[in-house]
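Exercise 7. Given the encoded structure of a 796-residue chain, write a plausible sequence.
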């Protein structure tokens, strides 16, 4: 093609060859997505022997550092070059890419005067950053040259330390504002001839960068104050205090007040009026960006220092023993949600008024989505600021479960959202009522939530909006499920599923379908019906184009897993829970409360399969997460205590099991009241331990109370009732009350055969327990019959 190109080679050891090749391929793929005059063009990538090569645009010129040393440019020339580089970085961000190693050596200044950003070898798609974060590394205290050290291993700490943003030093994910910091660090060095922060070694450098102290400009520097302030903002330690985006930084750099005064001071004339017009356009653009930043800052009305104080005071005022721990743990979730919202709101505004990327319909859908997220945040903050004990117990789960802002910035996802009614005030009234109902749900006030969602549903009906009606019915299903009204919950979810699907509200339909998987397949033990609903939900996820590792898909896998576990398909259930665990660890990190829930589920399956040591390790990991994030007396801790007690009892540690279960029972009765299925479970387990220690009267009383709760909530033919009947029979057998035991065992087996099916392993367990009881009474023939029936099930 008679084209001069630059070739980049990396020779690697055999051991490191694959990593280097992957890094260069990533560079090529990243740059191939860009076509911008201020980004070096990549043509091809390949390998030759043990070398990886990259062909790219040949740039005749010098790196920024070499150019500055050779030309000794004034601040205006430096600024012009760096504005070009900023345009290239902004283009990369619009393509969804981070550079993560911006510095003077990665900016070329061509002989034609054009700056080009290069060396995207550390680039990642921004959406991949969370999945590829490495563990936080310990920084060595060995003396190192802080100015030349480069860390090029993939992970949170990537780039050249002297240019790295503070958040990267502490293992946090890099984002567009991290690139902005590096860009401003490079600009500072080019303007002043010295780096913004220095240190004799890496430790001192980290201290300087993360201290929050602004950089010091050298005395006598001929750089205007307005420019220094713009760069200093980009170097802020708190990324929230930097410019909202590189586009916003660029607008600030272009808004040179001295240039505006010069333009306005010129006389009238045709040529000069054209120059003034250019200055006015720059000013208009800067004003538009400032207006967009103001729109993002409106979230400060919802989440600010006063809101944090009110939240803390409201939670602590309940006097719950874990309130301080909860208050400390919910605050970061609200802060992160507000920051995500701010960025999304600014970018949405810029896409319409500055970048001219979105049409009016996409813009309106995005604003509606963001408005809903803001109202949800506001409602939950308000509710938790006047919390009762129940709300405190659920606060961390509620804050960590706020609706994601990311879909509000995804044009493809926005396109799948149904069109809203034109009555915007009416729609906002619906969202406000729905958000209030969700806050009540998340705070554990389910009856009050039902009252509020009924009002929201009435708003949706007045608006004649099927999608909003489906939304209200979905929340209603959640609340009814929490109240144990499973038939009504099923009806609400089913209505939401079909109404939502008909209206094109596929997200709502998917969520309703996932709710049906649990309510039908697990709560009501209609396993096959629940699995059929899981396939319906899967269809909705396919229509949405949900990623195989999305959080919504993890919820669906959870629902399937509990059904398969209930059916006795333990290995299949464990496989689903392991996948869910991997998804949630990647999305939330290893110590998130939702990770602990999945650990509990997986441990339950391992316990049911007799893998007690594996179960114990999983329960203990879950317990450590929950005690750290929720407080040692939290009800979710009680669930794990209950499960861990089962392992202790199964391995003969009766005293430890009893102590764990008594603690779990106390917490559950306080949270749910005396007649909840969770209380019945704790009663039944504690009764089993009491029976083992010979406290038969107390054990019988607890089992009968558990039986009454289950029959009232689940109905007399639920599988769980069979288990409690069996446990009650065991109490009577241990106490020597043979006839009472016989009647209860036979009743349990008959119900088990009907509820579980004739080949279910749990039926085999019931038959074995009865056989053991018959052996103890010397009824050998009857016992042999029960054992034979059980063996037929286990060997089938």
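Solution.
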């Amino acid at each position: 093609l008679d084209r001069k190109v630059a070739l980049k080679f990396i020779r690697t050891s055999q051991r490191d060859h694959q990593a280097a090749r992957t890094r260069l391929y990533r560079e090529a793929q990243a740059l191939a997505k860009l076509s911008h005059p201020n980004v070096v063009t990549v043509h091809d990538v390949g390998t030759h022997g043990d070398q990886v090569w990259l062909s790219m645009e040949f740039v005749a010129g010098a790196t920024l550092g070499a150019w500055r040393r050779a030309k000794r440019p004034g601040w205006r020339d430096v600024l012009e070059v760096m504005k070009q580089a900023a345009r290239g970085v902004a283009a990369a961000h619009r393509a969804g890419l981070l550079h993560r190693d911006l510095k003077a050596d990665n900016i070329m200044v061509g002989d034609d005067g054009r700056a080009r950003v290069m060396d995207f070898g550390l680039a990642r798609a921004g959406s991949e950053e969370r999945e590829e974060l490495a563990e936080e590394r310990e920084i060595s205290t060995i003396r190192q040259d802080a100015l030349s050290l480069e860390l090029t291993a993939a992970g949170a700490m990537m780039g050249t330390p002297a240019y790295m943003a503070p958040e990267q030093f502490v293992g946090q994910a890099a984002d567009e504002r991290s690139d902005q910091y590096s860009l401003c660090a490079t600009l500072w060095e080019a303007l002043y001839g010295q780096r913004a922060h220095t240190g004799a070694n890496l430790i001192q450098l980290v201290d300087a960068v993360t201290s929050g102290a602004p950089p010091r400009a050298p005395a006598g520097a001929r750089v205007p104050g307005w420019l220094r302030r713009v760069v200093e903002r980009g170097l802020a330690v708190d990324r929230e205090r930097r410019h909202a985006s590189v586009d916003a930084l660029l607008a600030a750099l272009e808004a040179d007040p001295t240039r505006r005064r010069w333009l306005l001071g010129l006389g009238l004339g045709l040529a000069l009026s054209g120059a003034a017009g250019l200055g006015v356009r720059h000013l208009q653009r800067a004003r538009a960006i400032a207006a967009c930043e103001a729109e993002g800052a409106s979230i400060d009305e919802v989440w600010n220092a006063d809101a944090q104080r009110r939240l803390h005071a409201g939670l602590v005022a309940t006097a719950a023993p874990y309130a301080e721990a909860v208050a400390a743990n919910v605050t970061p979730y609200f802060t992160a949600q507000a920051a995500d919202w701010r960025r999304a709101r600014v970018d949405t505004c810029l896409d319409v008024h500055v970048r001219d990327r979105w049409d009016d319909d996409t813009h309106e859908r995005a604003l509606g989505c963001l408005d809903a997220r803001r109202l949800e945040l506001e409602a939950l903050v308000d509710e938790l600021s006047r919390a009762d004990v129940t709300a405190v117990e659920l606060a961390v789960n509620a804050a960590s479960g706020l609706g994601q802002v990311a879909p509000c910035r995804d044009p493809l996802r926005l396109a799948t959202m149904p069109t809203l009614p034109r009555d915007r005030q009416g729609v906002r009234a619906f969202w406000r009522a729905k958000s209030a109902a969700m806050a009540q749900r998340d705070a554990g006030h389910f009856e009050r939530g039902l009252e509020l969602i009924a009002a929201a549903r009435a708003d949706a009906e007045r608006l004649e909006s099927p999608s909003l009606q489906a939304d209200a019915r979905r929340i209603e299903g959640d609340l009814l499920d929490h109240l144990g009204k499973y038939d009504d919950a099923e009806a609400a979810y089913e209505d939401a599923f079909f109404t939502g699907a008909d209206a094109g509200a596929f997200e709502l339909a998917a969520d309703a379908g996932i709710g049906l998987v649990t309510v039908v397949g697990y709560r009501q033990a209609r396993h096959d019906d629940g699995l059929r609903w899981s396939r319906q939900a899967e269809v909705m996820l396919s229509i949405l184009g949900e990623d195989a590792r999305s959080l919504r898909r993890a919820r669906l896998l959870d629902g399937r897993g509990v059904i398969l576990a209930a059916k006795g398909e333990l290995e299949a259930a464990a496989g689903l829970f392991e996948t869910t665990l991997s998804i949630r660890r990647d999305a939330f990190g290893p110590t998130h409360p939702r990770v602990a829930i999945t650990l509990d589920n997986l441990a339950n399956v391992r316990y049911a399969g007799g893998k007690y040591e594996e179960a114990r390790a999983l329960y203990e990991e879950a317990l450590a997460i929950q005690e750290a994030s929720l407080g040692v007396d939290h009800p979710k801790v009680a669930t794990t205590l209950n499960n861990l007690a089962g392992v202790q009892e199964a391995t003969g540690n009766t005293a430890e099991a009893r102590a764990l279960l008594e603690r779990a029972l106390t917490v559950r009765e306080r949270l749910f009241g005396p007649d909840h299925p969770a209380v019945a479970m704790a009663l039944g387990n504690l009764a089993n331990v009491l029976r083992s220690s010979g406290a038969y009267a107390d054990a019988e009383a607890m089992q009968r109370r558990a039986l009454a709760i289950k029959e009232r909530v689940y109905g007399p033919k639920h599988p769980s009732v069979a288990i409690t009947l069996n446990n009650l029979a065991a109490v009577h057998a241990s106490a020597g009350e043979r006839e009472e035991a016989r009647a209860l065992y036979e009743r349990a087996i008959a119900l088990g055969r009907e509820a579980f099916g004739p080949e279910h392993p749990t039926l085999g367990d019931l038959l074995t327990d009865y056989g053991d009881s018959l052996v103890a009474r010397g009824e050998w023939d009857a016992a042999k019959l029960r054992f034979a029936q059980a063996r037929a099930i286990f060997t089938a």
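Remark. The chain is about 65% helix and 5% strand. Students should compare their own answers with the one above.
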